[in-house]
Write a sequence for this structure.
């Protein structure tokens, strides 16, 4: 065969081979996807992010804070969400929602939203004195007659310690000013002086109920009732902070919350403190290692692998999310730099992506980014046009809600979300997360 004929054959073979390719990148022929939304890994930009799973996180180990965080995650599905008391309480209150792993966490949770940061140390000392174990606080805001509800469950070694802690916590004098952070339509620190002095022994009208707050104090702001309560229940201290139309409504809200919370926490099987080091950091056995992490491994307060009911404390709309999680058969939710939802199957994951995309599209000042994700046409990305920097107490945590850029995508049975204040970065995150989950 002549050289000319060999060349002709080579050209023909090359044309046939490249006929199924979209383009050539760096000398590599890239095959066209069979579905227009299929990912093309060779075209993706993942920056410096990892593209393969990391090592499994192992057990909590001897770090007492890590062990307490894992125990708090276990407890979370037995902590009452405010929306389970009043379905209008769905707006997130990030600074009232987090695991409580140290006396310092406890102090910050009980001081907010009161402007009583000098009192934080008193709560910290109470936690140390009575050997606080672990807990979780969860808060939501609404526009109905109940405007704000924070519910916290704090575990102590035994009932006597919990009873003493509840009494001492109630003895910490609250401040005369509220300073909550409103997250809607954008993060804003509000200062609200109280109209009246704090009145101890509030909620006397419900004291004859079988379930009622043990220690209650009330005040008012802008004509609304403000109430904080502490109640010992077994080895736990149950805490509620309520702002409602009247003090009577606030007291009724607390009673409702206590009835439900006591029943829920009674179902929880706590881990003996001496055995908490043996708790697995990833109870799913695999999802944490497959969730994208930051270079410094820093994460938000919600970091970890959670049961779906537990994760509702951190969802944008927990009422809608609860129904979605049931319909989609969500097994686990993992939060590191990105958030990954493990659904029953690929069709269920698509349902999750569709609902999250619709909710994001409905937000004020949000629109799709002008360009898509290179090599990942199935990813949906958004830009919040009215974004300005939010409170900087913990930028990673704040970014989860007050993001500038957000991408939502799917890989098989997994739906996942990335957020960032930089468009290029969020697209690199979503691409890297796809590759980790897809194994490509």
């Amino acid at each position: 065969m002549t050289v000319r004929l060999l060349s002709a054959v080579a050209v023909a073979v090359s044309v046939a081979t490249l006929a199924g390719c979209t383009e050539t990148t760096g000398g590599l022929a890239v095959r066209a996807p069979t579905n227009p939304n299929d990912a093309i890994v060779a075209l993706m930009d993942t920056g410096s992010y990892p593209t393969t799973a990391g090592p499994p996180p192992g057990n909590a180990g001897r770090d007492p804070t890590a062990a307490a965080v894992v125990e708090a995650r276990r407890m979370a599905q037995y902590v009452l969400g405010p929306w389970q008391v009043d379905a209008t309480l769905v707006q997130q209150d990030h600074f009232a929602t987090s695991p409580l792993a140290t006396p310092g966490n406890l102090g910050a949770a009980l001081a907010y939203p009161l402007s009583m940061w000098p009192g934080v140390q008193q709560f910290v000392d109470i936690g140390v004195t009575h050997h606080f174990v672990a807990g979780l606080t969860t808060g939501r805001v609404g526009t109905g007659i109940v405007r704000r509800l924070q519910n916290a469950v704090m575990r102590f070694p035994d009932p006597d310690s919990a009873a003493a802690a509840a009494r001492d916590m109630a003895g910490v004098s609250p401040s005369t000013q509220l300073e909550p952070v409103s997250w809607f339509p954008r993060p804003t620190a509000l200062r609200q002086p109280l109209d009246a002095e704090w009145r101890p022994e509030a909620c006397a009208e419900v004291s004859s109920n079988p379930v009622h707050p043990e220690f209650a104090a009330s005040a008012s702001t802008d004509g609304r009732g403000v109430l904080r309560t502490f109640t010992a229940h077994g080895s736990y201290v149950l805490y509620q902070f309520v702002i409602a139309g009247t003090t009577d409504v606030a007291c009724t809200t607390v009673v409702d919350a206590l009835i439900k919370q006591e029943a829920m926490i009674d179902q929880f099987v706590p881990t003996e403190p001496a055995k908490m080091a043996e708790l697995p950091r990833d109870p799913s056995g695999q999802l944490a290692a497959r969730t994208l992490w930051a270079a410094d491994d820093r994460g938000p307060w919600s970091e970890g692998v959670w049961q779906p009911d537990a994760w509702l404390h951190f969802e944008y709309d927990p009422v809608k999310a609860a129904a979605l999680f049931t319909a989609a058969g969500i097994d686990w939710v993992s939060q590191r730099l990105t958030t990954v939802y493990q659904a029953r199957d690929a069709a269920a994951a698509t349902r999750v992506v569709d609902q999250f995309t619709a909710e994001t599209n409905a937000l004020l000042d949000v629109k799709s980014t002008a360009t898509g994700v290179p090599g990942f046409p199935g990813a949906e990305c958004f830009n919040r046009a009215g974004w300005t920097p939010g409170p900087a107490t913990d930028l990673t945590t704040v970014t989860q809600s007050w993001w500038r850029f957000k991408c939502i995508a799917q890989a098989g049975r997994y739906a996942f979300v990335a957020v960032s204040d930089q468009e290029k970065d969020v697209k690199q995150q979503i691409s890297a997360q796809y590759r980790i989950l897809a194994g490509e």
